[in-house]
Amino acid sequence: MAKKDRSAIDACGAALAVVNDRFLVDLRAAAGDPALIARAQRRHDLAALVALLRYPYGHEESDRCEDALLDRILGIVRPAAEAPRYTRDLTTARTFVAAALPGFWVSSGLCDLTGHASLGPDYNGARGERLHREWPLDVEGFVGTWDEDLAPGDGVHRECRAILTCACRALAYQHERPPRARAADLPAVVSPCA
């Protein structure tokens, strides 16, 4: 196994260990409440996907699995081989954001140092009124934009992953908010690669 692959696997494994530890804490705190268990599962699924997107192995098989997980966020169930190439194509990554977070703006780029992206609600756009209701600015601790800079690597693939990581972090943030202050929950993500 190449040294680059080993370090990505180690970094991803460490990030997933933290995600799993939090999941266990959340499950204990849920004390059997189905709604709290569902929120804990959703939080875990999105955090695990963020870890996988941040630390790519660069292998076709892992990319395809992550593409299928992103499909599941949109409520689409199909074999991993049939999922759009969210992690490899900028247009497709932006299409994911438009579907998962309607009315959000996206800005991204690629340089010698990073693949980077930012996104947030476009309050001045056509969906501004809905976004003000679902993503209110006056909530304590509100995060208005999500930014990601991923280490140098494999060209446009890195920029796509930065966009997708921001989108998953925004979805996780929306899910973290109290039920009265957030949009309806999205379906749980179930791995098609398990």
Name the descriptors.
6 helices, single chain, 3 strands, 194 residues
How many distinct folded domains? Answer: 1
Main pleated-sheet profile? 3 strands, antiparallel
Shape: globular
- Distance separating the two termini: 22 Å
State the share of residues found in helices, binned by percent: 40-55%
Number of strands: 3
Report the structural category: mainly alpha
Summarize the helix and strand pattern as letters: HHHHEEHEH
Query: How much β-strand is present in the residues?
Result: 5-15%
Oligomer: single chain
Uncertain residue segments: 180-194
The residue-averaged pLDDT reads 81
**What spatial order of strands do you see in the largest sheet?**
1-2-3
Q: Count the helices. How many?
A: 6
Radius of gyration: 17 Å
Descriptive notes:
The protein is built from six helices and three strands, in the order H-H-H-H-E-E-H-E-H. Mean pLDDT is 81; it is low at 180-194. 53% of the residues lie in helices and 10% in strands. A three-stranded antiparallel β-sheet has the order 1-2-3, covered by helices on one side. The longest helix is centred in the first third of the chain and has 28 residues, at 3-30. With 194 residues, it is mostly helical. The protein starts with a helix and ends in an 18-residue tail after the last helix. Helix 1 runs antiparallel to helix 2 (34-54) and helix 2 (34-54) runs antiparallel to helix 6 (156-176). The chain has one domain (3-181). It is globular. It has helices at 3-30, 34-54, 60-73, 90-100, 128-134, 156-176, and strands at 104-110, 115-121, 146-150.
